[in-house]
Design a protein that fits this description.
This protein is an alpha+beta fold. The chain folds into two domains: 137 residues, Aminopeptidase, CATH 3.40.630; 144 residues, Aminopeptidase. Helix content is 33%, strand content 29%.
């Protein structure tokens, strides 16, 4: 549950940094902080993080496309804190809790306000105070943030990067039967079983959002569900019990993107050999920006998984 807001006394004439619990109404404000921070990080790393991010029209369209994600994170947050300077938002941190697994989804401070203790205070407020099964962060390469995560006992396990191409209809020989996902108690039970085998925990709140925002598919063999995946403007997650099915599952998703007229891309753990080999063989390109999966201890079968795009959470 959210901790109490600050009640510190203000000193007249002195710029005052305060902290408060975030809400759904803060979604666009925190998106602007996110966009400014990742664009600045891209400049420092000499990589493109947001294509056309300096164009106001591109930024407006990106906000409209990502608004449902930011609202979902606000509505299902475990902790959500904003830092404000004289009432203006300058940074925020947010976390989720899914069946006992705590995950930091966002942690950003405006470039001109970094390295002043704001990030340290925000992270302190969203770190779990209760016992959790695991702590997880999908982190940027920002060294200052990495240092904070390491001090919090969360360590890098593998890199994640985006593979993409202009999609084509692809034929892969398979015995899989493909069915559209629908929001029902049976569907959630099936997804939960696959997630428990691949991730070791379930995340019904995320699946409810994916089902409302993307096309979901279930892949069956001999009448038993062995994989699921989501496609749309953004793709993923994909979870497979048999990693040998990645060629067939990805071929189906790419073909669906070709029919919809979307560029196709997936967020790939670079330990997932089956997916990497297939995608490189299909001529996919690798994005120049890498994220890192960090956790307090090893868990899960991430060589059987592709992350949702954009990779704010598992």
């Amino acid at each position: 549950m959210p901790r109490s807001n600050d009640s510190s006394k203000r000193q007249p004439g002195v710029p005052q940094i305060t902290y408060r619990v975030g809400s759904l109404e803060d979604s666009e404000a925190v998106y602007q902080i996110f966009e400014a921070a990742v664009s600045d990080l891209g400049e420092r790393l000499n990589v493109t993080v947001i294509t056309g991010g300096q164009d106001p029209e591109v930024r407006r369209k990106l906000w409209q496309r990502r608004r449902p994600l930011f609202e979902h994170l606000a509505q299902t947050a475990h902790q959500f804190w904003l830092a404000e300077l004289d009432g203006e938002p300058i940074g925020y941190a947010r976390s989720i809790l899914r069946s006992g697994v705590w995950e930091l989804t966002e942690f950003f401070v405006l470039p001109r306000k970094q390295s002043a203790g704001v990030g340290r205070e925000l992270l302190r407020r969203v770190l779990p105070t209760e016992k959790v099964r695991h702590k997880v962060i999908i982190a940027t390469p920002d060294l200052r943030a990495q240092a904070r995560y390491l001090k919090a006992g969360v360590y890098s396990r593998f890199p994640i990067t985006y593979f993409w191409r202009e999609p084509q209809e692809v034929q892969e020989q398979t015995d899989l039967i493909i069915e559209p996902l629908t929001a029902s108690s049976k569907t959630f039970s099936t997804l939960r079983k696959i997630d428990l085998q691949v991730l070791g925990h379930h995340h019904d709140e995320n699946h409810a959002w994916f089902l409302a925002q993307r096309e979901g598919y279930l892949y069956l063999r001999d009448g038993e569900a062995v994989a699921y995946g989501y496609t749309g403007h953004y793709n993923g997650p994909f979870a497979l019990l048999d990693d040998g099915d990645f060629p067939a599952v990805l071929a189906h998703a790419e073909g669906r993107a070709a029919r919809l007229g979307h560029r196709f891309g997936v967020e790939v753990p670079l330990m997932n050999r089956s997916a990497v080999d297939y995608l490189l063989g299909r001529g996919y390109r690798l994005d120049s920006f890498f994220a890192f999966f960090m956790s307090d201890a090893p868990f899960g079968r991430f060589d059987h998984y592709l992350f949702p795009s954009p990779p704010f959470f598992m």
